[in-house]
Design a protein that fits this description.
- By secondary structure, this protein is an alpha+beta fold.
- The protein folds into six domains: 35 residues; 61 residues, no CATH class; 75 residues, no CATH class; 70 residues, Immunoglobulin-like (Sandwich), CATH 2.60.40; 73 residues, Immunoglobulins (Immunoglobulin-like, Sandwich); 154 residues, Roll (C8orf32 fold), CATH 3.10.620.
- The strands form eight sheets. Strands 1, 2, 3, 4 and 6 form a five-stranded mixed β-sheet that branches. Strands 5-9-8-7 form a four-stranded mixed β-sheet, with no helix packed on it. Strands 11-15-14-13 form a four-stranded mixed β-sheet.
- Strand 13 and strand 14 form a beta hairpin.
- Helix 4 runs antiparallel to helix 6.
């Protein structure tokens, strides 16, 4: 066979065999690839990193014995500059076998600050240097914080509880230093323990009366009663107390105050227990009169004048009645004397006379002597002319210049009183031997003690003897007068009068 023929034969054989070989090679390669992929069992783990920090593809390979010889490579560039959850294409190799897969990447952000409540476990129960740095990780919701590893840097810090304010600390991660700030705040209001109390009506209460204790981690700025009940209203009342700390956190607590009713009766001031008025003249009973309850508060009062007849001469009882808010009452009885003469007119006559017989430089003894002398010189004794009313008796004496012992007594009382000299009335004790009345005065001028003062003349005593005589002198005069009247002329009840000079 010629060389050309042999060459052509080989060419034909190649055309027939090569396609078959190629097909066989392709099938062999495909078979090998399929075997490698299907036979490559792998296990991945999620990776967490801080934003801006590079990662290694090998970190996605689970740390198990079966994955010890598996190598991982990124298929594309991984962007770690934005927080979030990402799917990262990976190529895994185990010997001659390879597989393309995807890993889960969590990119999280390191917070620059963390806010903690004063007294929380972060700020109060631990030391600053013991705070877990992972608390500063703004982790994805699917990511456990513990998966991020952050190491402490050496630093200087005080031990103890952290006060309200900002506190800085340094952390490091993969060679990067972070300046982190812990904001310790106080948003918790104080707590208080109050007690219920019972107090009398009208007694004020203070915060200390009802607040047992107040607690707060911060200083207390305010503890005050904001709803103060009426201190005079009996019964149970709720009292509100506000407590606040220096950071403005406040709370309101309440206690019950039980007020007892008042039992002290009201008091009258300015009541005139004896009123003298002329017949037919209206009387201003309320003028200058005030009523107060037990706590000094003015209250209304009523006046019972049902027995009074201002048009008829006589003595009448009038009653002042005051009742407080608790129903406690006070009754005060006074006596109104209705006269046929006007007491004001009698006072005018007395004042006009005193202006003529008294001087400003006189002592009270000298004034009393001047009054006694005027009575002795200007009033004539007349047994049938007299009256039971001091004002009518004095008026009788001023107008008619005569009268019985009551006229002398009445004139003396009016003149002594208008002159400002203390004086009292003395009544003789009447008995079977001496049924007749006699009246005279007691005076205490210049605070020298009480002495007898009798302006009515008699045959056994001189004018001087009847002016300011003592009890001892009175006994001597009784002996003289007994010779004339056959009884003790100056017999009186000493228990009805103050102590008289002996």
């Amino acid at each position: 066979m010629t060389p050309n023929a042999t060459h052509k034969l080989l060419i034909e054989i190649a055309k027939t065999i090569l396609p078959a070989c190629v097909v066989l090679l392709v099938f062999a390669w495909m078979a090998t690839t399929i075997w490698r992929a299907s036979d490559f069992a792998y296990q991945l783990q999620p990776v967490a990193t801080l934003m801006g920090h590079d990662i290694n593809a090998q970190d996605f390979v689970a740390d198990t014995p079966s994955m010890a010889d598996v190598s991982a490579f990124f298929v594309d560039t991984v962007d770690v500059n934005a927080p979030g959850r990402y799917t990262v294409p990976l190529m895994l190799h185990q010997g001659e076998r390879s597989v393309r897969t995807e890993g889960v990447l969590y990119v999280t952000e390191m917070m620059t600050s963390l806010t903690a409540e004063l007294g929380s476990d972060l700020a109060n129960s631990t030391y600053w240097q013991d705070i877990d740095p992972n608390r500063f990780i703004a982790a994805h919701t699917e990511l456990q914080i513990a998966t991020v590893s952050i190491s402490h840097l050496p630093f200087s810090a005080f031990a103890g509880d952290l006060p309200v304010g900002d506190h800085q600390k340094l952390f490091s991660h993969n060679g990067t230093v972070f300046y982190l700030t812990l904001h310790v705040v106080d948003t918790t209001p104080p707590t208080a323990v109050l007690r219920d109390i019972t107090v009398p009506a009208g007694q004020a209460i203070s915060v200390d009366d009802i607040v047992v204790s107040v607690f707060d981690l911060s200083p207390i700025a305010m503890t005050e009663i904001i709803e103060y009940p009426d201190i005079f209203a009996p019964g149970e009342h709720e009292v509100a107390v506000r407590v606040a700390d220096i950071y403005g956190n406040e709370a309101i607590y309440t206690a019950t105050i039980t007020r007892l009713p008042n039992t002290v009766p009201p008091i009258f001031y300015g009541v005139r227990y004896e009123i003298h008025s002329a017949m037919g003249e209206p009387i201003l009973f309320r003028a200058g009169v005030y009523a107060y309850d037990a706590f000094g508060r003015p209250i209304h009062f009523d006046i019972d004048t049902g027995l009074l007849n201002i048009n008829e001469r006589g003595t009448y009882q009038v009653t002042f009645i005051a009742t407080d808010a608790w129903g406690v009452s006070t009754d005060v009885a006074i006596y109104v004397h209705i006269h046929s003469v006007d007491p004001a007119a009698v006072y005018e006559l007395a004042d006009e006379l005193l202006s003529r017989i008294l001087r400003d430089d006189m002592t009270q003894v000298q004034q009393a002597r001047a009054i006694h002398n005027w009575l002795a010189d200007n009033i004539t004794y007349a047994a049938a002319i007299g009256s039971d009313s001091v004002y009518e008796a004095a008026h009788q004496g001023f107008i008619h210049r005569r009268g019985n012992c009551f006229v002398f007594y009445g004139l003396a009382e009016i003149l002594l009183t208008r002159a400002g000299i203390p004086n009292l009335r003395v009544d003789r004790v009447a008995h079977s031997r001496n049924p007749a009345d006699h009246r005279w005065n007691l005076i205490n001028p210049d605070d020298l003690g009480w002495h007898h003062f009798d302006a009515t003349g008699n045959m056994a005593m001189t004018r001087n003897e009847r002016f300011m005589f003592t009890n001892s002198q009175l006994e001597v005069f009784n002996q003289r007068l007994a010779l004339i009247y056959a009884f003790d002329f100056y017999l009186f009840d000493p228990t009805l009068l103050p102590e008289i000079v002996q």
